[in-house]
Amino acid sequence: MQRLEGRALDQLRPVTFELGIAPHASGSVLVAMGNTRVICGVMIEEGVPRWMKEQGVTGGWLTAEYSMLPYSTQTRKARDISKGRLDGRSTEIQRLIGRSLRAVVDLEKLGPRTMWIDCDVLQADGGTRTAAITGASLAVAVACRKLADEKKLAMPPIRKLVAAVSAGVLDGTPVLDLDFNLVATEDGEFVELQGSGEETTFASDQLNDMLALGKKGIAELIAAQRAVLARLMVQPA
To answer: How far apart are CA 112 and CA 198, in angstroms?
Structure first.
């Protein structure tokens, strides 16, 4: 079986990474997954949130913000600031991005610093959260290496790369790019799974099929990340 554009059901959309898209950021990536495009930028501030100081929490902190630019969709999407609040979807996605990257960054090694990850969707054609996580992982790897190169840290605090895809079941067949989101590290460990039956149910063997398909897709994304880092002679610890 193939999709309308000729892509196999277990095939990723074409993926590209363009580094250095935001010169003032410590690390930045324009990630394209098919027609979805997201800019992921990382900035590092000296100091940690007040709550860490008050609670005596050591190390650093990593947090994320996510937004869809007004022209990222076919009909204009109003900015959250015009509504006076962040919409629920954006809140949920930026928390997911933060959790995904905190799973692979050693916050103790980061030291008393805050790492901000900003993910801005330029063009939305499905899978913006998975693209954001995958791009942010690469941007964080570059930012962490920069900290080490500037002698602010002995070693980059990123332990491994992370990436994300979605999967699902269509007419009994596991398929990439549906609505079951998977986040996993380069050694195959899952960070988070998000999915539901949506007015139906799915069997355990179908779940296993989706997990296997998702891990395959994530392995391909991480190989693409590694290829970019190798070309730049930037290797996360």
So the answer is: 43
CB 177 within 8 A of CB 127: yes
User: Does an H or E element contain 215, and which?
Assistant: helix 204-231
3-class SS string, 147-163:
HHHCCCCCCCCECCCEE
3-state secondary structure of 68: strand
Let me know: does 163 contact 174? Beta carbons within 8 Å.
Answer: no
- Two tokens, residue 33: 């997954």
How far is residue 179 from each of residues 75, 89, 113, 138, measured CA to CA in Å?
22, 14, 35, 23
User: Could you please report the per-residue DSSP string of 119-182?
Assistant: EEEEE-SS-HHHHHHHHHHHHHHHHHHHHHHTTSSSS-SB-S-EEEEEEEEETTEEEESSSEEE
Model confidence pLDDT, tens digit, residues 44-99: 999 999 999 999 999 999 999 999 999 999 999 988 877 777 788 899 999 999 99
Residue type, 32: A
Question: DSSP assignment, residue 66?
Answer: E
Residue 49: CA count within 13 A, CB half-sphere: 9
Q: Is the pTM of this model over 0.70?
A: yes
Q: Which of 181, 143, 145, 137 is closest to 161 using CA atoms?
A: 137
Q: By three-state DSSP, how is residue 115 classified?
A: strand
* Tokens matching residue 172: 């009994």
Radius of gyration of the chain (CA): 18
User: For residues 115 and 7, what is the distance between their CA atoms, to the nearest angstrom?
Assistant: 37
